């Protein structure tokens, strides 16, 4: 069932979680309204809480209903819109795709988000960066091993899945921390392949209306 009203995405250009959803929207060829939430502005975050009690992006507004959490939004889009299917029909591949997505969204990304780094840096200057690098390195190493078992052209076999939606933002963040990515050839190969796909290009932070905000 496709929504009758144009969806509204509350997003921030460099938010990893928002980036995943933007890819899904592009793959599904969904026309939507983009609303910027300045994550470095307390006023903007307070205003967001009026529509999203969690106070985070992404938030998708569909026919006056709100959906938060990137994977929940992505699964909603996959179940209700035509276009590229993001969860394989094969139960093993579907489980692999979900496991990879959860490894990144639950096991890596929360450990280097802005709030965590700010708290750690208040305790000791530079501590946040070192903390993020350690967990990024550990997470990428595990992801490389996961992908060696599941990947074909993409993260799980030869079709795009939800697992691929988490790759670009992860490597983008690793680059911001100046990590050496050479130990992860499988991840790099998949990311390079994804980078040539129009939907992934459209979802890139540099191509968003608020690109460069607080850069």
TrEMBL record:
Ranges for domain GST C-terminal come to 90-213
The record's family statement is:
Belongs to the GST superfamily. Zeta family.
Record-linked PANTHER family: MALEYLACETOACETATE ISOMERASE (PTHR42673:SF4)
Q: Which cofactor does it need?
A: glutathione
Q: Which GO terms describe its cellular component?
A: mitochondrion
The source's superkingdom equals: Eukaryota
Which Enzyme Commission number(s) are listed? 5.2.1.2
Tell me the pathway. Amino-acid degradation; L-phenylalanine degradation; acetoacetate and fumarate from L-phenylalanine: step 5/6
Could you tell me what this protein is called? Answer: maleylacetoacetate isomerase
């Amino acid at each position: 069932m496709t929504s009758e009203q144009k969806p509204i995405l509350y997003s921030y250009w460099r938010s990893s979680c928002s980036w995943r959803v933007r890819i899904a929207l592009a793959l599904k060829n969904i026309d939507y309204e983009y609303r910027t939430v300045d994550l470095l502005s307390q006023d903007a975050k307070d205003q967001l809480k009026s529509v999203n009690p969690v106070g985070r992006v992404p938030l998708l507004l569909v026919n006056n209903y709100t959906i938060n959490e990137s994977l929940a939004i992505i699964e909603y889009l996959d179940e209700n819109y035509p276009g590229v299917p993001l969860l394989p029909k094969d139960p093993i591949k579907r489980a692999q795709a979900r496991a990879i997505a959860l490894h990144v969204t639950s096991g890596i990304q929360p450990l280097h988000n802005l709030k965590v780094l700010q708290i750690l840096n208040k305790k000791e200057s530079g501590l946040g960066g070192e903390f993020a690098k350690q967990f990024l390195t550990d997470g990428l190493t595990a992801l490389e091993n996961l992908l060696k078992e599941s990947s074909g052209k993409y993260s799980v076999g030869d079709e795009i899945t939800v697992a691929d939606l988490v790759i670009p933002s992860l490597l983008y963040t690793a680059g911001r921390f100046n990590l050496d990515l050479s130990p992860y050839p499988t991840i790099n190969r998949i990311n390079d392949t994804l980078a040539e796909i129009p939907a992934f290009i459209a979802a890139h932070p540099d191509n968003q209306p608020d690109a460069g905000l607080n850069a």
